[in-house]
Design a protein that fits this description.
alpha/beta, 26 strands
């Protein structure tokens, strides 16, 4: 063979030996060899098993080889130079941090701050000074909260410290730093071959309680730029005057405005059925503990068997669901932008393109994406150029998928990615026992949802953002009641489920407070959870499974979940309390056969043990088995 040289790629043991050659980078040939004897207990890849059952031409065998898993398992960063790979969402892992809570600048006090909605004064410069800490966990990107100029005052709801109350889109808020600080952060990340995911809001601006307040907002300084449903004869000042107990203005969520179900009616799909017997607390519903069982509420407007605890965005089966109110309603007192106004639409599209170019942004995260029209979102994605991953709080997979593929035009993209709320709800309940329909301590249901998602009309499941907590929901350590085994199992699921894993800052310190400061913990790189997250990221990279196929392996227990990533990795997680006793993962179907060859746990390095077709883990902690060469 002439240059470039050929190299033989080792293939997994199977009934059909496949000799795969590489000529330079591309795969160019696959040669079918002899059939050899196989141990009956071995499980063979699906395509090769099919080859044994029917004649296949050499040409078709080549086609199968060209479509084989190894090509799909390549990380995008292995194929592309960083200048291109930084703009690719799929295949990345992300560390999410609120700028106000991660790191203060070195010359500032490092005292703890855990005020939920007031300024703690973390800065962009502080992030730059602690990039070693983040890179030490082997993340590809960081996601930061918005840093544009915020509403300068305080309301009963708090302040703009989280960055979602913009008052001037063209300035950096001095609480966070300067324009140069943001540019320096991007440059520092790029020097490390890391990328920045910048958070922004297009649905609304900051609090508005009068015409005078609206006039302070740049560039949307007129009341006509904001939705005003149900205003009637009220003046704009009257319409926006309330600072609590809304509406008015019309609200985008819950029954107060009739957004997701008929106004004033019961939108709670489930209720607590109390019992005289001592049943104790059975999970937690969204409204508090339940001494008894959560059961379907026949008086609600929900369909029986609802997957949501209450009518949510995308729950069209809820009686009275109103898409117009959902999109035009406000969040409390935050001025909801009217994208049908030509000035608003044009300025928003111009601004995002300008901001991305000015600060050399790699990726974007879009807040409250479910409350804007698909057509506007498609235009926003086009204007941004770089991928946008949107926040869509729903359990409806079809609705969720439409935020990747515009339902009004199947050939047009809506957004590049979507945060994976449908799986988050079931995962947190499945691992930690928080009540959620069908999900409480039920990992079988989580596996079913993972399978359903792969057949739903998404453009790319690889671009869905997986997470187990964030800045708007309880911490996983809190919900799991600090059970380290359950926490670690949930983190392994987050890191290896198909999609983009996102870890919320402070998880490495087992935070239970949602928005506490990190700087006072000293950026400890020896914490066990810090080391675990680093290890999981490195395993993803070393075994190139970021984009690998995923398949659920059914087990005989709702407390366990097993899934594959590619041909050479199996992930074993459970929701058992921490235990040093062996845990048996047994296939549900008798015909499922023991894995052939030697397997070891990539986390601990220990060799895997199988008994009677079951994998036997030495304790309740998660395992990521990889096949040894």
């Amino acid at each position: 063979l002439e240059q470039p040289p050929c190299s033989l790629v080792r293939a997994p043991p199977a009934a059909m030996v496949r000799l795969t050659f590489l000529r330079g980078a591309p795969l160019v040939a696959a040669v079918m060899a002899s059939v050899i004897a196989v141990e009956p207990a071995c499980e063979m890849p699906l395509d090769e098993a099919a080859l044994l059952q029917s004649p296949v031409s050499v040409q078709r065998f080549k086609e199968l080889a060209l479509d084989a898993a190894p090509a799909k398992e390549e990380s995008p960063d292995k194929k592309l130079p960083f200048s291109e790979a930084r703009h690719q969402l799929a295949g990345k892992s992300v560390y999410f941090l609120p700028v106000d809570r991660f790191a203060r600048s070195a010359n500032m006090s490092q005292a703890k701050c855990d005020n939920d909605n007031t300024w703690c004064n973390g800065t962009l410069r502080g992030i730059i000074e602690h990039l070693d800490y983040i890179q030490g966990m082997a993340f590809d990107c960081i996601w930061i909260t918005p840093v544009v100029y915020q509403y300068p005052g305080e309301t009963p709801s708090g302040t703009g410290c989280m960055g979602y109350w913009a008052y001037d889109l063209y300035r950096i808020d001095p609480h966070f730093g300067t324009e140069q600080d943001l540019k320096d952060l991007v440059a520092a990340l790029h020097n490390r071959s890391m990328c920045l995911m910048y958070d922004f809001v297009a649905n609304h601006m900051g609090p508005i309680h009068s015409t005078a307040m609206a006039k302070e907002i740049v560039p949307f300084n007129e009341p006509r730029y904001y939705h005003q449903m149900f205003r009637g004869d009220m003046s704009f000042d009257e319409y926006t005057s309330k600072k609590s107990n809304w509406p008015p203005p019309a609200q985008a969520m819950w029954s107060s405005s009739g957004a997701q179900c008929t106004q004033g009616m019961d939108c709670s799909c489930y209720k607590c059925e109390k019992s005289d017997s001592d049943l104790g607390i059975v999970g937690e519903d969204p409204f508090g503990g339940c001494s008894g069982q959560m059961v379907f509420n026949p008086e609600s407007l929900c369909p029986e068997g609802a997957l949501s605890p209450y009518c949510m965005p995308g729950d069209y089966a809820c009686k009275g669901y109103n898409e117009t109110i959902t999109q035009e309603g406000w969040f409390y007192d935050l001025g909801d932008l009217n994208q049908t106004d030509p000035f608003v639409r044009r300025k928003q599209l111009e601004w995002i393109g300008w901001f991305v170019k000015k600060y050399d942004i790699d990726l974007l995260r879009l807040d409250t994406a479910a409350f804007m029209s698909f057509d506007f979102l498609s235009e926003l994605q086009d204007a941004a150029v770089v991928p946008i991953i949107g926040e869509v709080t729903t359990t409806n997979l079809t609705f969720h998928a439409q935020f990747q593929t515009n339902p009004l035009s199947n050939k047009r993209r809506t957004l590049s990615g979507v945060l994976n709320f449908p799986l988050y709800y079931s995962a947190l309940a499945g691992f930690c026992g928080k009540w959620f329909p069908y999900s409480t301590f039920n990992l079988t249901f989580l596996g079913q949802r993972m399978e359903e998602q792969q057949s739903a009309p998404y453009h790319s499941v690889d671009a869905l953002g997986n997470f187990i907590d964030n800045h708007d929901v309880p911490r996983v350590a809190d919900v799991c009641r600090n059970d380290i085994s359950r926490i670690y199992n949930s983190l392994v699921w987050t890191m290896f489920a198909k999609g983009v894993p996102i870890i919320y800052y402070g998880t490495e310190e087992l935070f239970t407070e949602v928005r506490s400061s990190l700087w006072d913990k000293g950026f400890n790189t020896t914490a066990e959870t810090y080391k675990l997250i680093k290890n999981l990221n490195l395993i993803r990279k070393e075994h190139r499974v970021a984009l690998a196929d995923m398949k659920i392996v059914p087990t005989d227990s709702e407390s366990m979940l097993v899934f594959t990533r590619g041909a050479r990795m199996r992930v074993f997680v459970n929701n058992l309390e921490r235990s040093a006793h062996p845990v048996r993962y047994c296939p549900k179907e008798q015909r499922s056969r023991e894995l052939c060859g030697k397997w070891s746990d990539a986390i601990s390095g220990e060799e895997a043990t199988f008994e009677d077709g079951c994998y036997v883990a030495p304790d309740s902690f998660p395992r990521v088995l990889v096949k040894l060469h």
